[in-house]
Amino acid sequence: MAGATTAGRALLLLHRSGRAFAVYEDEAEAVNEGRRPAPLPDAPRAVLGVVPLRGRMRTILDPAAIDAPPAEETEAPPNSETPAFIVALRGDEQLALACERAERVEAPPFADANADLHASNADAHVRATFRLGPLGVTLLDPAHLFGAAMRGTDRRRHRQKKP
Fold it and tell me: The pTM is what?
């Protein structure tokens, strides 16, 4: 159960596009001032591009776009703004999250958390949702973020053979 494993772990609360997201503080490597990501051709809307951070190239994800319905994804142009902050995540995937503001908060009790969010593979990147004062917060699972950002896309474009 989510409540049993989260007690005492601090969160990094991220604000992006009027929504609140969180990752556990120990899953974040650093919070950096934003830089304009170099765009990647044919990337899904949730992938803003790449930037060098702490000696590694990081793929910058927009957490608000990861959950966007596919219809919104195709109608909206890619976000070309420079994020105010970039949160570099630990792990071999070399990911980072774009946000307007990041702050450390103590993890609240997860009595109101939606514990069955892992029932669907489409939501594997979401550990729980909960209320923090007036905010509805989505607790993200970094191990599944890249897959969620890339959903419905083929990482390698197939080249057509010439007749």
Answer: 0.79
